[in-house]
Amino acid sequence: MTSTESGAESGAGSARSWWPPALAGVVALGLGLAVAEIVAGALGRAETPVVAVGEEFIDHTPGWLKDFAVETFGVHDKTVLLAGMGVVLAVLGALIGVLTARSRGLGLLAATVLLVVAGLAVNARPDTTMADLLPTLAAGLVALPVLAWLVGKAAPAPPAAAAGPAAAAVPAPSRRAFLTAAGVTAGLAVVGAGLGQLLGARRAGVETSRDDIAASLDLPRADVPPGVDLVVPDADPWRTPNQHFYRIDTALSEPLVRAEDWSLRVHGMVETEVELSYDDLVGMGLEDRWLTLNCVSNEVGGHLIGNALWSGVPIADVLALAVPHADADAVRSRSQDGWTAGTPLDVLTDGRDALLAVGMNGDPLPLAHGFPVRMIVPGLYGYVSATKWVVELEVTRFADFEAYWTTRGWAEKGPVKVASRIDVPSSRAHVAAGTVAVAGVAWAQHRGIAAVQVRVDDGDWNDARLAAVPSTDTWRQWVWDWDAPPGDHRPQVRATTMDGEVQTSEHAPPAPDGASGWHTIDVTVD
Ligand SMILES: Nc1nc2c(c(=O)[nH]1)N[C@H]1C(S)=C(S)[C@@H](COP(=O)(O)O)O[C@H]1N2
Ligand SMILES: [Mo]
């Protein structure tokens, strides 16, 4: 019976060597992904199959898992996701390779299914066109034949008549030939991926567009105002450099928007729909404001917060061009990649420095922080206000829509809670007895920090010395000189706002509307 025979043969084959076809599958898949990188890079598109699948995954993971990822991995959540996808892809590639060795038809079918899934993910991304399918298509056109060819070398179909002795004679040279073929393919994949990265780095001219903006816009030098930075060793600087500014968003690969292609549509419940180009916007006049931005996912004592000099146009001025209807109460902003935020209309028009920002610390916005234009609204968490790559403002009513994070269980409105953080000493530090500078920051954007107090081991509260601030919209540094006696101690901090709210000791987790509680650290005084 032929089926028994071939079964026995493939059984002997798999006992001898299941790994060559598995390796063939991994290498073929790798080459396919490299080809996708090259084509996406050449086309200047952000959506490679891997990116699209990753972003669909991000958009469809349940809220709790996302919260867990941000809490556990913080700003490294994307790296962890990509690493996880790498492992899953390697396993899938290996399985497809093994399957292909058993049955060419089934193996190629499985590979095709994988491609179709990737294609569907690309298609499901907002703002994708047929052109975004080309990287996936090219990946398939290269990976499928290479898969069949490599698996053929890894597990040569036994000649129908050949029995034991012939099979025993074949392996050595064919194994060498296979390893050479696999090695060359893997090398091509690595070189290809590198080339793709290089092409991608040109980013469809977005970096060039950013350089042009840097040259043409007269952005300010972001000199730190006098007295704001207490310069306590090891404390965070008052001004957060762009490269150290936390990054949180749902985009696995930054949306690529050139300033010259950007436009902002203001519509919905307005008298006149308005569409602005980048030049229209900056032509309205840029204002420079120090504003502190923080994430609702920031834990007590966390670092998902930063302070920068933002250059931009007041959102109120742009809304005024469109003239919102009196019964509207919200603005739904949308980014180029489809993410949305819902911001109270009154917050955007009450005279505070809510900006459509184009500059950050004297440079055009970095791609990761929303180039070419983003929103920044002092007093609100980023998820309800700080839309990056913003392309649309829809004047509407909260009753009529839900924004990205609201549909995932976070609060509809996200005013910043008053908070304070101890930066030095670091938690579990050992310090020498004597005078120890306890220092950090406190923030309650747009309300302002009036006082910061520190106590140790539930003792009396001591007033910290406050640094200067240019407005109520930034964080405020503080320092308290502690006469530290030897032993284990627990300093903790609380802040009071200018409108008299004392920071609550009540612990709340970040979800659904921001963490609360006093930052407390453990210090050993030697
Ligand atoms: N387009 C877009 N804008 C976005 C987000 C996003 O996922 N997509 N995340 C928001 C959140 S939750 C925060 S805290 C801030 C973070 O801005 P940053 O990355 O510049 O620090 O961006 C906001 N704007
Ligand atoms: Mo956030």
Automatic annotation (TrEMBL):
The keyword Transmembrane applies. The chain crosses the membrane at residues 22-43, 80-99, 105-122, 134-152, 177-200. Residues 255-405 form the Oxidoreductase molybdopterin-binding domain. GO terms for biological process: sulfur compound metabolic process. InterPro entries: Ig_E-set (IPR014756), OxRdtase_Mopterin-bd_dom (IPR000572), OxRdtase_Mopterin-bd_sf (IPR036374). Residues 498-526 are annotated as: Disordered. It comes from the Bacteria. GO terms for molecular function: heme binding; molybdopterin cofactor binding; sulfite oxidase activity. This is DMSO/TMAO reductase YedYZ, molybdopterin-dependent catalytic subunit. It comes from Jiangella alba. The lineage of its organism: Bacteria, Bacillati, Actinomycetota, Actinomycetes, Jiangellales.
